[in-house]
Queue: 3 jobs
Job 1
Amino acid sequence: MDLGHLLHLLIPSTTSVAILALFFAYLAIAGSTLPGKLVPGAVLQDGSRLHYRCNGLISLLILAGILGAASKLDIVSLTVIADRGLELLSTTFLFSFLVALVLYAVGCKSSNRCSSLKPHVSGNLLDDWWFGIQLNPQFMGIDLKFFFVRAGMMGWLFINLSIFARSVQEGTMSQSMVLFQLFCALYILDYFIHEEYMTSTWDIIAERLGFMLVFGDLVWIPFTFSIQGWWLLSNKVELRTAAVIANCFTFVIGYLVFRGANKQKHVFKKDPKAPIWGKPPRVIGGKLLASGYWGIARHCNYLGDLLLALSFSLPCGMSSPVPYFYPIYLLILLIWRERRDEARCAEKYREIWAEYRRLVPWRILPYVY
């Protein structure tokens, strides 16, 4: 593929704009109207708290059903996303860029003093545009931060499924493609089953909404996390039985650590006295959990995330570094994020954090880092 042809494929079309607009419109309507558990968010500095309607799973299943029916009626092709992948990538990128500019402009003009909408302006235009100005900006009653995370995770699944449909259509479906699709689908479905856990994560609680999060949710997650599928479309991989077993083992261990750690932290924030692994939790200074996975490493959930990312790439074999972009990137990102977390926690908790570090010396991987 020459550069000119590549650039031509990157030009947004009316079809790609329509796909994106319909996707967002559906999510906005479904998120506001479908039944779902109403989950209270973290208490903010001013004592207020947002409430999140966690109906992502039913929204996802209904949309999948609509697309399946539309495909049967020849209204929509299941490969439309795979066929227009680069168009959708550039369209989503431009949308993210424009949204970040609007968020910056609205945030600068805001005079609201509540914790969710209070502007945090540093005076550095690039910094404020990148990290955001407001904590929880809304549009027509929709919390945009929670909305964009949901859109990104669903987008990732539908890109994968479109790639899978294309592999079936082209006769290139392989064991590796099935493993990749299975692991990703299980991970994404699990995310929506436990969607309420997202309400207690650092991104939702503390990160302001700027280009970093908008781009990360809408572009980075769906389009880079699916690289392995794109690669498998044009590369045949034969896996031995031992490799398949090792891949499955990596996924299961990663899932148990990731889901277990996040569940423990979420339950602890809701009920600090809830038992962890059948025992009363050990709490440092009345604030920091030092039991269960959180007594093994201070950021043990990152270890689970890394193992899961590796399991998504292992079906591609070892012949190319391209499918390993995601786990390599995630390793760099999580080490950087872990350093940011450590600095913030040291400033926030002071002596309590020093005591936690003494009791739990390992950052991510015990006895290594």
Job 2
Amino acid sequence: MAEPGHVAFTQKMQGWFPEKVQLHIAMLALQFGYAGFHVVSRAALNMGISKIVFPVYRNILAFILLLPFAYFLEKKDRPPINLGLLIHFFLLAIVGITANQGFYLLGLDNTSPTFASAIQNSVPAITFLMAAVLRIEKVRLDRKDGISKVAGTIFCIAGASVITLYKGPTIYSPSPSLNKVREMSPVLQSLGDANVKSWTLGCLFLIGHCLSWSGWLVLQAPVLKKYPARLSFTSYQCFFGILQFIVLAAFMERDLNAWLIHSGSELFSVFYAGVVASGIAFAVQIWCIDKGGPVFVALYQPVQTLVVALMASVALGEEFYLGGIIGAVLIITGLYLVLWGKNEERKFMLQKQPPLIQSPTDHGMPRAIGHAKSSIVQPLLSQSNESA
């Protein structure tokens, strides 16, 4: 039984910060956390950290964080493991961790944090397109939700194409005063810059990253039906992802010095990626999805792009180009069209559900018995520890 003092404190917190306010604060904090990951990752690459070693250390930290929670919280609900499931986890790790994170780092190294974040807004649309092509999701052009999702997908594809094929002139450069601040700060100087190396190649890598992420969302759905323990599911993939990156390192990263952490900044970047972006942010997102739903969580994704732009401009002196801005606007427009269509689809499915009945376990609150068939893109932006 909960102690009276604890209950009173909880009630006071609810009075000071209603759950809706807590949810918005948590989502803003989540976007700042993920935005920091984009900037920290680019800074780590600028420092010379290996693109193979970085994800190995990141996933080791994430695995260490996830494992105890997966073991204890899902001990009673975890289905027995078998060879077939292990093969599925291994294959999902290739798509959702190894290819996903590898393409991301290659794309980020050649473009910039802001446009890496911007192009990620296309993931829900690409996921919907993949599900439709595989006939896992029906395209209902006779309903406004179906038209909206198709239109959103077209906008996202157009935006990604513009970003890739048209760089355009520089629209914004950091002011001279900001550049002087960066020159006078040893910490900011150590982070390097966000200068573009190969725009088209980097964008192609980022599209590969989004395709891998979307493919992982589509392919994981049938596996989760057989193995619904999400924390354990993620932990297994994380473990196999570590093994896959180590095998890649045996062929691509034979310099033993690459495995050494040479500075406090490199240590911080690895710690941030593994603990903050892959551990804390993962837990916060689970809570937000539980309280607000996947569509609400996905609506905040463009905020991350804006925060990344501000952070990268200050920390890395990032410049913004016309093609990237046009593409980002198209992609974000497409994202909201897909999300609006998804929300309308959810309303339509709820209307087909049986009426609500009263359940004694819900403290007098009505609970729906029976669930509408969930769509393959229901998670939308599952920014778990494998998201970037």
Job 3
Amino acid sequence: MIGPDSRQYKVASLPTEDPTDDITDVSLSSVAPVHVLCTERSMIVLIRADLNSNRRHVTAEELSLGWSTDSCKASQYSDTEYVIKADLHQCGSELSIDGDHLVYSNRLIYTPRQNSFGIVRTSAASIPIECHYKRTHFVSSIDMKPSSDPFTSPKSAVELIGFSFHLMTDDWRTKRSSYVYHLGEVMNIQASFLMAEYTPFRLVMDSCVVTLEPNAASIPRYVFVQNHGCLVDSKVPDSSARFMARKQNHVLQMQMDVFRFYEDHRNAIYITCQLKIVDMDLNIMNKACSYSGNRWLSLDGKDEVCECCENTCDVLNQEHIGNWSRLPKMSVSKDTTESNTVLLGPITVLD
């Protein structure tokens, strides 16, 4: 792979066989309630049914790895255990570099379901999950010079991509250690992807939603980025939401006011965003727009790509663009290099 330092790396070989064939050797009763097995291409999470060590068994439906989709849900492994197997790039996993290791990190999400009387007896939990891989740097005789076309096809770049999604400190220098906020504070949210610096791509947020569960389709929900990159919360009266000035193409920063859902006693929220890596050509499908001074402004210039934020930014050809007819045809392209759904939370909001 190509690291963020533009050097070329190879990953030490790992067994490719599926360790689920031999996980009967692992006794979850004698170890932590959660056990992680890392293969060359996937992470396998074993979960004890008595997750909370209170003799109350959780259900498979209450467990998921990162972004809650069918492929990231738990399944029955035995009478007392569940298992989740996912590709290293699936379920919102993040790739980072820690010294001589590549680290794939995610979270096991436990969301207790209410019973027929509308009550729950345990608290939700978010458990960090990581797979570490030793990497070996090697020097190639080929000069690694930047290229205007570093990939022969968009798909060949996929293996080099690792998405990150974090809350940041006030000065944006480090990740925020606490996920607890008070009403009236502002959240600094940063998304990024890991790729060689010379690659001609940039990061955008296609959509974002806040929910009370780690499921973007749950109710209630508040969609604050929609229409392919329009930060609609920035147009709400008294909102200070905005995209921050871009310093690097692979990083996107946003500020948003802390809030809670009206008349709902739950104080934990989740932020789910659909991130896209796109080329450098601005268009109405791949943009980052904030509302300021009674008009929509593009983070990357060319403000006219944001005019559709007042309507629908999903046009298929030039003749249906209307007010945006002055844009070239390439401005309505839907081509995307790679996308991923990422999740932040639980974030605790106090009065």
